[in-house]
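Before relying on records like the one below, remember that each one covers exactly one chain. Contacts with other chains, cofactors or solvent are not represented anywhere in the record.
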Amino acid sequence: MAQTAVKVGSKVVIAPQHLQQLFQSLQSRGYLLVGPTLDQGNLVYAELTSVADLPRGFRDEQQGGSFRFKRQGNGALFGYGVGQQSWKKFLFPSDWPLWQARRTQDGWQVVPSQEEVPRFAFMGVHSCDLHALAVQDRVFIHGQYADPTYQARREGAFIVAVNCTQAGGTCFCASLGTGPKAASGFDLCLTEVLQDDQHYLVAEVGTVRGGEILAGVSCREARGQEVAAAESLVAGAARRQSRSLDPRGLKELLYRNYDSPRWDEVAARCLTCGNCTMVCPTCFCHTIKDLTDLNGEIAERRRYWEVCFTLDFSYIHGGSIRVSPQSRYRQWLTHKLATWVDQFGCLGCIGCGRCITWCPVAIDITAEVQAIRESEANLGQGE
C-alpha cells in the first residue's frame, strides 16, 4: 500500500482485488460514492457501497432506439459505455426547491434551506461525460451568474474517470475530440486491461487530492508495457467507432440551412417526446412552478427539468411560438450545434450518442447533419 501521496501525472497499477481500497479511501474522507449499478437489467448511476455493486462482467449493446445490457463472460469491472442517465442528475437535480415560506401571525417568513451539501465521488466517468461536466460548468458557474446549488455540489465532487476500451454502438466522441481517452477534468483516471489472462487497472493521477487518495490504496508504478497496453485498447476503441460528426463549419452550415427541407423530413418521424433532451448530459432547460399546500400555510417555488419539445416551453402570451414538430426539432439541433457556440463558446454536444440510443424512432443527429451537408452540396452542384 502506498504510504505517501502519488505525484500528479504518475501512472500506477491497481489490481482488481485492491480496488475496494480506493472505495474505502474515499469513504473515509466523507465522500458519498455514486457510480454504475445494475437495476432490473438497466445501467443506472446510484450509490455504491463496495466494488461488488459494480456491474461486473456486463457489457452494453446500443443502436438507434435500442439498449441492451448483457453478460460478456469475463470479470471486467468497467466493460460498458454510458447508460441513459448522466451525472447531471446529481449536480442539477430534476426537482429542486428554490425557496419555501411559511405563514406566520405577522405574514410570511422565508425558511432557510437546511440541505447539507453532499460530497460526491463519481466513480466511472467516461471522457464524453467529463466534457459534459465542463459544458455545464460554463452554464452554471462561469457565466454572469452562478447557480449556488450546482456550484457547491460540483466544487466538492471527486472524479474517478474511466477510459473507454471498446466502442459504443452510437457514440461519436472521437470525431469531436471528447473521447474515448480522458485528457483532463479528473482526479484519477482508470484504464482497465483484461487480456492474455491478465487483469489490472492503470491509474493516472490528475490532481493533488487524487494522489492523496492513492496513499490508501495498494498500487505500484506502471511498467512501460502496461501503459502501452492500456493506450492501445483506448486507441482501438476510437478506431472502431462507426459514427462521426464533423465540427468544421458546423455552426455556419446550420445557419445557412434554416429553411432546409430536411427539417420537414425528420419532423415526419419525430414524436416530440423529448427523450433526446432528457438523456442529454448538457441540456439545462428548466421551468419554475409556485406551489402552496392545501391549507395555505406553506408556499414554495420549485425548479423542474423541462424539454424544448413541448408546446408549453415556448409559450408566450397568445400561444406557443413553436407549434410544429419541425420547428421544435430544428430548435433543439440548431441550439446544440450552432447557437450554443454563440452563447458559451463550445458545442452543446459531446458525442455520447445517448440521443440516438434513446430515441424511440432512432433519429440520428450525425445522420441529420450529414444529410443537410449533402443536400447543400447537391444544390451547389445543380447550380
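The chain is about 30% helix and 25% strand.
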